[in-house]
Design a protein that fits this description.
209 residues; globular; alpha/beta; six-stranded parallel beta sheet; 6 strands
Length: 209
């Protein structure tokens, strides 16, 4: 069984990580985020879907993908979306030595800065946290986790599975994770348009982090 939401007890014992936003009582803001891009055609698809509703989102980009597709990074920026750090090479913190991981983190940050913008925050690939990330990187910039993980990269999940769980999970202040990647696209292309329409119908406003 796929776990879309981290148990509340884990969120409570890791308070330095951002799992969701506390919103005002009348707020209808939610935060869609997209990891692992930019990816030609797929990121364009996401941007077109967001444009349909004038919604904004956050893209946690891999540095090497940004270097490979700089024109796509510029489109993300020009359309008013935000960009976050997802390491240079999608580094797994549990397999990297701390100095190597920090180099990968900093290299991606340098790439983001080369586009004349600041990183909105960091999301560790695979959601894997170490003491260093928790105590040190969280002091440098926000470390964003999630309220809801779509699992769009998981071929064992159907679009209907994801849609059902996502609609139940969307609440004011929630942070949702999707992936603008080749692996996720068979499910993302079905799920994203319907979820955006759901948000419009329910009067949610998608904002960038």
């Amino acid at each position: 069984m796929f776990i879309h939401q981290i148990p509340a007890i884990i969120r409570k014992v890791l308070p330095k990580l951002t799992w969701q936003y506390q919103t005002k009582d009348d707020s209808r803001e939610v935060y869609f985020t997209f990891d692992d891009g930019p990816t030609p055609e797929i990121t364009n698809f996401v941007l077109d879907c967001l444009d349909t509703y004038s919604f904004k989102a956050t893209f946690f980009c891999i540095g090497k993908n940004m270097l490979a597709h700089p024109e796509l990074v510029q489109v993300i920026i020009d359309k008013g979306h935000s960009i976050g750090n997802h390491t240079m090479n999608h580094a797994n913190a549990w397999k990297y030595k701390h100095q190597s991981y920090m180099h990968d983190y900093q290299s991606c940050l340098d790439v983001i800065h080369s586009f004349g913008v600041n990183s909105v925050g960091f999301r560790p690939p695979y959601g894997r946290i170490t003491n260093y990330i928790y105590h040190q990187i969280s002091q440098l910039e926000p470390v964003y986790m999630w309220t809801y993980l779509s699992g769009d990269y998981n071929k064992d999940l159907s679009p209907s599975d994801i849609l059902r769980s996502a609609k139940q999970s969307i609440k004011p202040g929630c942070i949702l994770v999707f992936h603008d990647s080749v692996k996720a696209f068979p499910r993302l292309r079905v799920v994203l348009p319907e979820l955006l329409e759901f948000c419009k119908r329910e009067k949610y406003l998608l904002k960038a982090l």
